[in-house]
Structure formats: C-alpha cells, structure tokens
C-alpha cells in the first residue's frame, strides 16, 4: 500500500429498507497514481431493497460475503485519518456522512467552481448565456 497523501475516495450506494435510504455498498480509495489502496464491498446493517446495479455496479451476490459496515468504517478512517491528506471525490460530504464522520472536522469545499477560483484564479460555470469556461476564451 502506498499512501502518497493525495487520495481519491469513491462510494457506491445501495438502497435499504422500505424507503430505500442510501447505505454504503462499496468503497474504493486510490492514490494520485491510481494505485488501489482499498476496495471492498460493504454489508449494510439493514436489509438491501435496491441494489442500483446500473449506477453502482453492485449485485446481490457481491454483498453475500461482504465486509460488515463497522469493519469497513474503521479501516477507511484509519487510512484517511492521522495525516494531512488531499482527498478528492464526488459528494465527499455525503460519503463522510455515511461514514459517520462529521464534515465539520474536515476542510471540505466540494465546489469545482470555488476550487478552480482558489487554485487557478479562474472563474468558471457562469449562469445564463455566458460561457461555462470563460477563461478558455481569454487565452
């Protein structure tokens, strides 16, 4: 395992219970070079009522011998806690919520618009008829 300090986290969801609430079904972590540090199917604590296979890729057989949620949670938090990491992913606030990790403990700014402004000094994603990537036109 090679933790470079720059990690990408991806969580896939399944639906549980009669209301098909989100539950963690798979979690993967890779480093900046795409090296897989963690990839496990997760057995939710509630009954799965929707696998969301077209979106999640998760099938019933994938969860048959999956790792319990409590184990996965501890293993993942051991990987991402304890050091300064740059962590990227889609909907990290939602994923942290599923890991029961309060977003208030993290500097989370999931907005591509604000990150592009902070890092590149470039304004993107205008509303209305203006160009999505105005800065391309400015070159």
Automatic annotation (TrEMBL):
InterPro entries, per the entry: REXO1/3/4-like (IPR047021), Ribonucl_H (IPR013520), RNaseH-like_sf (IPR012337), RNaseH_sf (IPR036397)
GO MF annotation list: exonuclease activity; nucleic acid binding
GO cellular component: nucleus
Signal peptide limits: none
One Pfam family this sequence matches: RNase_T
Domain (Exonuclease): residue spans on this chain: 5-134
Keywords from the UniProt entry: Exonuclease, Hydrolase, Nuclease
Gene3D superfamilies attached to this UniProt entry: Ribonuclease H-like superfamily/Ribonuclease H
PANTHER family given in the database record: RNA EXONUCLEASE 4, RNA EXONUCLEASE REXO1 / RECO3 FAMILY MEMBER-RELATED
Protein name: RNA exonuclease 4
């Amino acid at each position: 395992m090679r933790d470079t300090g720059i990690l990408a986290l991806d969580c896939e969801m399944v639906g549980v219970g009669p209301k098909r609430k989100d539950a963690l079904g798979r979690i993967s972590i890779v480093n900046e070079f795409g090296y897989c540090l963690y990839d496990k199917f997760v057995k939710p604590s509630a009954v799965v009522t929707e696998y969301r296979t077209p979106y999640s890729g998760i099938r019933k057989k994938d969860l048959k011998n999956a790792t319990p949620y409590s184990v996965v949670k501890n293993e993942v938090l051991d990987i991402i806690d304890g050091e300064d990491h740059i962590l990227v992913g889609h909907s990290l606030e939602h994923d942290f919520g599923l890991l029961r990790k309060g977003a208030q403990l993290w500097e989370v700014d999931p907005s591509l618009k604000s990150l592009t402004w902070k890092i590149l000094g470039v304004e993107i994603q205008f509303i209305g008829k203006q160009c999505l990537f105005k800065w391309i036109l400015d070159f």
